[in-house]
Amino acid sequence: MPSTDFTPNNTPFRPLTAARDGSNFTYESLHNRVPHILTDIVNDFYAAVQGASDAAAVAEGKALTGELSKLKHEMVTDKILTPLEEDGVGDVPAWNRWLELYFSAVTWYSAPFLAWETYMYRRVAAIFKRSQHWSRFDYFAAKKEATFRASMEAVARMCSRVDLLTRDSIVNASSPTRLRVAFAEMLQASLWGNQTDLSMFPNLSSGALEEMQARISSGENSSKVVANDTERIWDIVSRLDGGRVDIVLDNAGFELLQDVLLAHWLVLVGIAKKIVFHTKRVPWYVSDVTNEDFRWLVNVAQTPSLIGAKKLTAADEATLKRLGDQWSEFLANGTWELKDELFWTGPYGFRYLPSEGKDVWDNELTRADLVIFKGDLNYRKLVYDLEWPISTPFVDALGAIATDPRAPAIVALRTSKCDTITGIDSTKAEELFAKQKDWMYSGEYGVIQLSPGRWQSSTQD
């Protein structure tokens, strides 16, 4: 195994980059998918500008639209990635130092996928953050809220299911088997909630959303978990007895609901005394969770009428309100806490947490017993966007965050939407490629993977 101690521009395996012949997913993303997202931002923002009553805000909005169009032009014409302009967020020096050290004079099509895509979202955020009238505008909010609004019936079903499951788990707390089965169900729901990702499926219809959610509820997707460490994770979780679990969140809306329901179950059955949710400080990758998104979800659960959820039964509304009130109480009394550290929207992969994200690593994650990383982007940042040999052990790809003696158990829950992956049996990989060539980035297959960290000596391989 090559050394896992490497720099962003000198990696042991090739980073994913856009193939010049247009044959890979990275090229498709750079040539079509991400420019389409930028166009959507421009169009949605233009509508907001047109609706503004302040003439100065309208004038500034038109100027920002021009900056967004300029960014898109730079992307599609393969210009050099330029330094960020100061915007007051606090991480611009780190971004520009990273560019200067590792990717000076690199262009969009020659830059690694993870580098240019993350840079693009940070550039967009900077355009808005530098403005006077639009600095707090979430240009993805309408999409996030509309998608959740379209799924309220499924939301109610999932909340009712977990409410019953939690009550059963409390009553049968002395039955390890019942708790283990309940935990496995909750973990899978959190995993497959990641399919509702608006950066990958920006035009997700309510019908497609309902279909996805039905598969989550039925457990139909179980056979598509291509690496599954659930039993080893449960071996750790079952011994926490009031421990701390951190969740590095991915998407708002229905996926966030699954994560909140998992946290709900963990606290009420006594496994966790503290849950820390790590959110994004700026709008990110279309549907990533901000603090505002999290609080919005809790408010909607408490008052479904806020978004016109007229089809819900009185019983469904009562369940949602009871759960929402409980979540609001958890936030108020510190059982649940939101943290929006800048590292999560920074340029570095997570192997650099002990150095470039030292405050987050030393003061937050190493204090947790278990850290769950949700979704595709977090997975790519965990293992780095490389052409890893597919059977490379997940733990080996993590670097220092796996080997640090203080390391928590790290769990990755990811539906695969990019062609980098580790920890897959080579024979199984061959079977998957024979069955479906795009299985690594179709979003149809998932992994539940564990790095035991400081629990290593007490877990079974």
From TrEMBL:
- EC number(s) reported in the record: 3.1.3.-
Any transmembrane segments, and where? none
**A GO cellular-component term linked to this record:** nucleus
- Quick check: keyword Metal-binding in the entry? yes
Position of the signal peptide: none
Q: What class of enzyme is it?
A: hydrolase
Q: Which GO terms describe its biological process?
A: DNA damage response
Please list the residue ranges annotated as the Damage-control phosphatase ARMT1-like metal-binding domain.
31-425
UniProt-recorded Gene Ontology molecular function terms: metal ion binding; phosphatase activity
Required co-factor(s) are: Mn(2+); Ni(2+)
Query: Pfam family example for this protein?
Result: ARMT1-like_dom
- UniProt cross-references to InterPro entries, sorted A to Z: ARMT-1-like_metal-bd_sf (IPR036075), ARMT1 (IPR039763), ARMT1-like_metal-bd (IPR002791)
Q: Which reaction does it catalyse?
A: beta-D-fructose 1-phosphate + H2O = D-fructose + phosphate; beta-D-fructose 6-phosphate = dihydroxyacetone + D-glyceraldehyde 3-phosphate
Q: Which UniProt keywords apply?
A: Hydrolase, Manganese, Metal-binding
Comment, domains? Subfamily III proteins have a conserved RTxK motif about 40-50 residues from the C-terminus; the threonine may be replaced by serine or cysteine.
Q: What PANTHER family is this protein classified in?
A: DAMAGE-CONTROL PHOSPHATASE ARMT1
Stated family: Belongs to the damage-control phosphatase family. Sugar phosphate phosphatase III subfamily.
Report the protein's function: Metal-dependent phosphatase that shows phosphatase activity against several substrates, including fructose-1-phosphate and fructose-6-phosphate. Its preference for fructose-1-phosphate, a strong glycating agent that causes DNA damage rather than a canonical yeast metabolite, suggests a damage-control function in hexose phosphate metabolism.
What is this protein's record name? Sugar phosphate phosphatase
Q: Which organism is it from?
A: Coemansia thaxteri
Q: What is the lineage of its organism?
A: Eukaryota, Fungi, Fungi incertae sedis, Zoopagomycota, Kickxellomycotina
